[in-house]
Amino acid sequence: AIERTFSILKPDATRRNLTGKINAIYEENGLSIIGQKRILMSETQAKAFYAVHAARPFYKDLVEFMISGPVVVQVLEGENAVTKHRDLMGATNPANAAEGTVRKLFAESIEANSVHGSDSAENAAIEIAYFFAGCELVG
Ligand code: CMP
């Protein structure tokens, strides 16, 4: 089915001017960018976005990293978008990511891993609504 998923190009990706290369991988694989904006997340936004990880030892560093520079938040649309996007990103830890995936190609570390993607359609809807108004999504 045609789905939507939420994507972030993280500060390590914007810092190295990788947004075009990563977007090309998504577009070449059938994901359309139907909403996109470059923002500097506030600490409040980053903490709330990653609230599910609040008890994890990496939470504080993760929030600091996510506000350390601009990010590009996106909504991707396409056939099986959630799973397709996760397959294109590769494993969270680039050391475990398959050849040709975004994280294998570009990630610097498990924290500076270049991209985020929703892990389910349910979370995609929540994450999309957190960063985008409906009128900003043009399919
Ligand atoms: P993301 O998909 O954005 O979701 C949570 C993020 O926490 C993850 O990508 C990583 O960038 C970051 N992170 C840092 N350390 C870890 C870790 N040990 N395990 C999982 N995620 C981590």
TrEMBL record:
Names of required cofactors: Mg(2+)
Annotated Nucleoside diphosphate kinase-like domain residues: 2-139
Chain positions recorded as ATP binding sites: K10, F58, R86, T92, R103, N113
The UniProt record lists the keyword Magnesium: yes
GO BP: any one term: CTP biosynthetic process
Cellular component GO terms held in the UniProt record: cytoplasm
GO molecular function: ATP binding; metal ion binding; nucleoside diphosphate kinase activity
EC class (word): transferase
Keywords: ATP-binding, Cytoplasm, Kinase, Magnesium, Metal-binding, Nucleotide metabolism, Nucleotide-binding, Phosphoprotein, Transferase
Active site per the UniProt annotation: H116
Recorded catalytic activity of this chain's protein: a 2'-deoxyribonucleoside 5'-diphosphate + ATP = a 2'-deoxyribonucleoside 5'-triphosphate + ADP; a ribonucleoside 5'-diphosphate + ATP = a ribonucleoside 5'-triphosphate + ADP
CDD domains: NDPk_I
Subcellular location: Cytoplasm
PANTHER family, per the entry: NUCLEOSIDE DIPHOSPHATE KINASE, NUCLEOSIDE DIPHOSPHATE KINASE DDB_G0292928-RELATED
Function: Major role in the synthesis of nucleoside triphosphates other than ATP. The ATP gamma phosphate is transferred to the NDP beta phosphate via a ping-pong mechanism, using a phosphorylated active-site intermediate.
Family listed: Belongs to the NDK family.
Oligomeric and partner information: Homotetramer.
Xref: NCBIfam families: PRK00668.1
UniProt-recorded name of the protein: Nucleoside diphosphate kinase
Organism: Plastoroseomonas arctica
Organism taxonomic ancestry: Bacteria, Pseudomonadati, Pseudomonadota, Alphaproteobacteria, Acetobacterales
